[in-house]
Queue: 4 jobs
Job 1
Amino acid sequence: MTDEQRSKEIVPEDAWQLILAVRQKVCSDGFPLDGLALRGDPNGPAGFVAVNEADALLSVNRDGGWHSFVAVSDDVGQLFDLYLPVALASAQRPLTLAHLGQSLDGRIATESGDSYYVTGEANILHLHRLRALCDAVIVGAGTVLHDDPQLTARRAPGDNPVRVVIDTERRLHGRYKVFTDGAAPTRVFSRAGAGARPEPLPAQVRTLEIETEGAQIPPAAIIAALRAEGLYNLFVEGGGVTVSRFLAAGVLDRLQVAVAPLIIGSGRPAFTLPPVASLAEARRPPCRRFEMGEDVLFDFDLRGQDV
Ligand SMILES: NC(=O)c1ccc[n+]([C@@H]2O[C@H](COP(=O)([O-])OP(=O)(O)OC[C@H]3O[C@@H](n4cnc5c(N)ncnc54)[C@H](OP(=O)(O)O)[C@@H]3O)[C@@H](O)[C@H]2O)c1
């Protein structure tokens, strides 16, 4: 590495480009056995290249651990800590990550479904970055019904994920943005044998039927159907019912909960899980904490955890 490179600092915009370059490299080539090293002009716009050479800016191991060969600020270090483990998901090491933004008292929306916004700007940007790194973003019918979200990565440079809606009973009509805006492919999962929709979905929306267990579509069956399409990096964005079902089914690898300094006092809960008799049975998985504006993000590693 040249002295000029060594004296430079990686700024947040370039750190994000490095993270996207890691993602592209992993998607195209898988993770090289000898680790991944990235180089480029840290003060240039985009255009980092992934190489295995001695003049790298950053090296990354397969668990998301990293080493920078130039100066990085705490903010940039946080970007690498947060997003490299997500960027490294692959067919060999798929990832299912869920996120919820909740008030101090564990609510994700009011009773009427108002959730704009529980958490602050920094957390909203975080959601867009997760979308940009993932192959598919998954939401329940309740979220589409109340929020009419686009589920795109429009606030962060990167590609939009495939959008996946779990609409068991085919309750949703076809005029929501995820069905009509054409910003990314959309899939809808319903119960095999559910009744007719209030109106048909646009032709470009792919619908899939899955056998239920009780009233539920098994989350593992949704994940298996998406992996069969080559979608390995899955982001379950909400709402509370959907994330709780994935968590209870033991299929999440990571769970992120952003806690905002806000008390709602009533409303839709973040988590609804089967009761436990004692606190010893409550989950206390390994956890990292990140300050995110006024909010605190708890990032739980659920791999290898009993459920
Ligand atoms: N703060 C946040 O992080 C955040 C994130 C997203 C949404 N929200 C807010 O949360 C609210 C919606 O959340 P919610 O918990 O009420 O609903 P939700 O999780 O968005 O949707 C729940 C519905 O999704 C379907 N579903 C999900 N998983 C299923 C499974 N495994 N099997 C069968 N059906 C499944 C069911 O539809 P059927 O009822 O048709 O069977 C279920 O009723 C909205 O107000 C939204 O604004 C907040």
Job 2
Amino acid sequence: MKLRHNPASPYVRKVMVVAHELGLAGRIELLNTAVSPVEVNATLAAENPLMKIPALVTDDGQVLFDSPVICEYLDNLSGGGKVFPSAGKARWTALRQQALGDGILDALILCRYEIAARPEDKRFAGWTDGQMKKAHQGLAALEREDLSGPRTIGAITAGCTLGYLDFRFPNDGWRQRHPKLAEWYRGVEALPSMQATKPPAS
Ligand SMILES: N[C@@H](CCC(=O)N[C@@H](CS)C(=O)NCC(=O)O)C(=O)O
């Protein structure tokens, strides 16, 4: 399998944490890929018309995106029902938690692009404030979730979300606002799968 990859992407990190947790990381060839919301990457476009990473090319030549789909594919490859509970309340809880973490990331990424990719004279503070509000409300909701127990896609996504906050928004202060989440994350960031996928120094 080949994965369109960049170590700074939290969605790519989700996929790689899942791969490590399932013992599949060694079967994935990483293709380092630069992306930009405003520039065309023709090579990537041939695989993912949305020109986003992660995108996975499977051994039989199928291209899968986005991160929830790739993560579920990997779970299936290793027999299924491991990080994606197969049915019932456990499944819906894990999927909701994944959607919450992904949604926080989507808001944070929009803030990041506003700050890092848009020319200074075209920036709109109201936009960044609005997205940051979503991210903060999402974090408050994450604090109320039960993330203990078996490591599901919900917990993995939450871990990668908090890792991205530390990476790109180190002064956010989320630990002060959410001590329960901070305590939970202390254990999670020490996991081998999280250590193996740490973003580069920013
Ligand atoms: N929903 C997608 C989001 C992927 C995404 O936004 N990836 C970013 C990198 S962190 C990207 O490729 N951005 C390029 C762009 O927005 O054009 C997923 O879960 O995989």
Job 3
Amino acid sequence: MAASIDAEYPIGIIPAMQDNLIYLLPGTNSCCAVIDPGEAEMVLTLLEQAKLTLTHVLLTHGHSDHTGGVSLLKKKSGCSVLGSDLRRTPEINIVVQDDQLVDMCGFRIRVIAAPGHTSSSVCYYLEPDGGGKGAVFTGDTLFICGCGRLFECAAQQMFDSIKRLAALPDDTLLFPGHDYTVENMRFALTVEPNNMAIRRQLEVLNRDGSLAAIPSSMGFEKQTNPFLRTQSPDIRRTLNLADAPDEQVFAELRRRKDRF
Ligand SMILES: [Fe+2]
């Protein structure tokens, strides 16, 4: 039977370093994938505790806070390393491309090229199986209630990338590369103060801790994430961009967030 996201195959969330998030994806036959291991020690401990065999590492981009653990994990497990930035991460032995399908641990994963944060950033879409929910690992492209900084690309490229992600089904679970949710929501309220879905979720996170936001869903992001809400009249009014093209609203939001 193929693996799916349910109680039998939960996705492990490992907070690492200051605010990074590493994900553990256990599949069939005790095999396991890890997404963006910025460090190795906690991953190795958890693998041993759960008696899982690491077979694949998936990298969304080449920044060291997402790849710092790759070398040791590969050495200890002999796992395959999938990623797009061979220049920054020479441990990669499968260079992935847009729309590529990867079958591993009983899962089918589709690669989504997402230039914006870096020119070669990718996201990994775990396709739903048997009517279950899909999941997407977005690295530093789409955060909960935010998006990544533009280091190597123009705003238009990032905007196109997050629009592609937003086209995934609304029940798609969103697993971002950093725990920035509370700060992102505070920023979002500066441009859309009457968004009650954000206010309600902030209350929950203030009570239960920021990790309670993970995973989000694409449907919830469409209600709350300002970078996916460039058509909101409230946001446009705040930015004095009532009739501007969506891309211009996005770029202005990104500029304001950089200064926030
Ligand atoms: Fe990054």
Job 4
Amino acid sequence: MSDKISRRNFLKVVAGSGVLGFGVMATGCKGKPSGGEGWVSGQYEGKGDFPVNLKGRVAISKLNPSIERDDEKCILCGQCVDACKNVMGVYGNFPLPLKQEVACVHCGQCVMQCPSGAITEKSHVQKVLDAIDDDTKHVVVQTAPATKVSLGEEFGMPQGTSIGKKMVGALKAAGFDSVFDTCFAADLTIMEEAAEFVHRLTEKKDEIPHLTSCCPGWVKYCEYFYPELMHNLSTCKSPQNMLGATIKSFYANKVGIDPANIVNVSIMPCTAKKFEIAREELQVDDQRDMDFVLTTRELAVLLKKKGINLNNVPDEEYDSVLGESTGAGRIFGATGGVTEAAVRTAYYFATGTNPPADLLSWTPVRGMKAVKEATASIPGVGSVNIAVCHGLENARKLLDGVKANGSKWQFIEFMACPGGCIGGGGQPKAMDAIGAKQKRIEAIYKEDVVSEKRCSHDNGEIQFVYKNFFGKPLSEKAEKYLHTTFVDRHSRLFD
Ligand code: SF4
Ligand code: SF4
């Protein structure tokens, strides 16, 4: 043995020789090692079960609203570190010791990579079951596009099976009072965001490039690492929260229910949505937009607790008037989908006519390439250069380039998770993760092609809600309920 010994080798020797056991006895600790819970030797005191590749793990605050870890299950394999650092560009990108808070954008990619199931989402299942059982509450649920092509996997269906209407049937059987569609809200988001983008292009050029804001993991990343670009973020709330605010205002008024008695639940592919609903900014008239988020996996748990097998429930329709959606709203679940949907309606806003066929199947923004680039030619506006980026480490590289050299794009879509929402941290886990993402994406684009309406502005229920409540995109009322602000979080990590 050399004079110098690494900590890892020292611990191996200690564990292998039983010296630790002697040490514990000698200090009178009766088997409880010093160093506190989670200390290496406390977890691996047994001979022979020392990890071969001891790589550490990400820190998770007890206050994290999205994820938690069961220390007893952690094998210190370091796969969460790999995901957080190499895919999400978070770990390793802030100084230590930590300054004010444990850095996390709540994406849940560490959950997807953790081989022992030590990291999980913070469950809202029991809270939702309690709300359903509370007769004084009117419990409303909404379903995100990516969950409609993945929930079936939890019930043994092939990857990429579209089960939207079955999910509605299952949610009604589970006791939810109304079932609405986040795809409707995606259409609503596009109405606001396309109007905002055209306005920025023509009158507020200092807010170009326009950065999308529907991914809460990406938004928090921007707030941590690129606060100087926060004024470029679209002020649109995410579809989840747009629908939440619409339910507690327009819908509550329509059905005559006190919004204080409405419980808004969403079914999301995403763990960051649990963080998002807790944001201070996301409440109107003293009502939180949203109350609970169930990931796709949690919904499967809830349905199984209720004895509901998705394979055996009948198809049912979404409730009206917040249940209609177009193909544009459905493709939000895939990387590039928000861009494609926004361009369809921006074209309409600028020209008064629907976009040509090539913009209805805009392949340059589709697929799994890290950064996709495309140019849309919109009469009256000109050529619009666009980038689509997924995975936050990719975002870091792209934005460092923008900071150094300026932006060659007028519109940039960011999604935290690889593949977009279909690859979210709340989705079913698959041995063949890449294949599963591919099949979910194919299913989403198939739904778009067979949709009777492909553009958000053609959604009849969207037109109804504007006519009877919001007035028009970017109206005072729309700004109040559908738009938000952001928080500079840079100083929580950096001096
Ligand atoms: S949720 Fe995302 S940002 Fe947070 S620790 Fe896990 S991988 Fe890192
Ligand atoms: S991936 Fe899971 S098991 Fe591995 S170190 Fe991280 S928390 Fe522990």
